From TrEMBL:
Protein name: Uncharacterized protein
Lineage of producing organism: Archaea, Methanobacteriati, Methanobacteriota, Stenosarchaea group, Halobacteria
Organism: Haloarcula sebkhae
């Protein structure tokens, strides 16, 4: 734990004398801590950053790491005060937490970084990735709001041994109802919509319109001269009341430009519903932005 970090409930964690023996290191945000975060990642340990512009600090450390990495959102807001990076198989996986408050939620964020709760997704859906594809990275947005929570992951793979190169974008999202960071909630998970605009010709999408794992899936896509659009909508099947459910998609597109960063615009839209006698109330949380990925070749 670096000096300047306010970590509540310190009796619930164990501190070690040697930083190299720690499971995770936590640093304040800011330019003066970028090198510390970079050194932590180089040593193979997860690094969590807390404070204003936390994602900027993590982005600078990743850029100096010599490993491939990416971010689902290239930007952040003043309230996004916790971010992290985790070394994984020669790359860096990144995390951003939205709706989390400091210092109260820092222990929760650290536990999420060390042990993220990922549902089992069918792999590789019904659309495999090209031979020789390499994983650039995984990037996550974990959020809470007044009615529930959500967890969005983007996983990007690049195949350069085919002509033109193929980028595979997996978007995985889980929506939660019930207890929130503030109180219990009567809102139920109602819909997940995953949208992306990619700079190339789409060569594959999955899943197509179908019923899948108790969910109805609607898929639309369109192609333009410079970019292509995809939209996947997941809703519980009729009369199903779920405390949570997961959505997963794969979109593949061709590109002639594999110089970093590889980017696309995307949004994960999460909707909750509170059944009312006359008219239901809904709550929507968006995660829009430009995703950027930096392959290390």
């Amino acid at each position: 734990m670096a000096e300047g970090v306010d970590f509540p409930n310190v009796e619930a964690v164990s501190f070690v004398g040697e930083e190299s023996s720690a499971d995770v290191s936590v640093y304040p945000s800011g330019d003066g801590h970028v090198q510390q975060v970079r050194d932590c990642l180089t040593d193979g340990r997860p690094a969590v950053v807390a404070g204003p512009d936390a994602q900027w600090t993590v982005m600078q450390a990743c850029a100096r790491s010599g490993r491939s990495y990416g971010f689902t959102q290239n930007g952040w807001t003043p309230t996004d005060r916790i971010a992290a990076a985790v070394p994984k198989q020669g790359r860096l996986d990144t995390h951003k937490f939205v709706g989390a408050e400091l210092p109260r939620d820092l222990p929760w964020a650290v536990s999420e970084v060390l042990d993220p709760q990922l549902p089992d997704f069918p792999e590789p859906l019904d659309l495999g990735v090209p031979d020789g594809s390499t994983t650039i990275g995984r990037s996550r947005i974990r959020g809470v709001n007044d009615v529930g929570g959500f967890d969005r992951w983007d996983i990007v793979r690049l195949a350069v041994k085919v002509e033109p190169a193929v980028v595979s974008v997996d978007m995985q999202a889980t929506i939660y109802g019930g207890a929130t960071s503030k109180s219990a909630s009567s809102y139920k998970p109602d819909r997940v919509r995953l949208v992306s605009d990619v700079p190339g010709n789409i060569t594959g999408i999955s899943p197509q319109n179908t019923d899948l794992e108790g969910l109805a899936v609607e898929t639309t896509d369109s192609a333009g001269s410079d970019e292509s659009f995809t939209q996947y909508t997941f809703t519980p099947q009729k009369n199903a009341e779920l405390r949570s459910f997961a959505a997963w998609t794969r979109t593949q597109f061709q590109t002639n430009d594999t110089e970093p960063p590889i980017s696309y615009d995307s949004n994960g839209r999460f909707r909750w519903r509170d059944p009312q006698l006359l008219e239901d109330d809904t709550w929507v949380h968006h995660t829009p932005g430009e995703a950027v990925w930096y392959p290390n070749r």
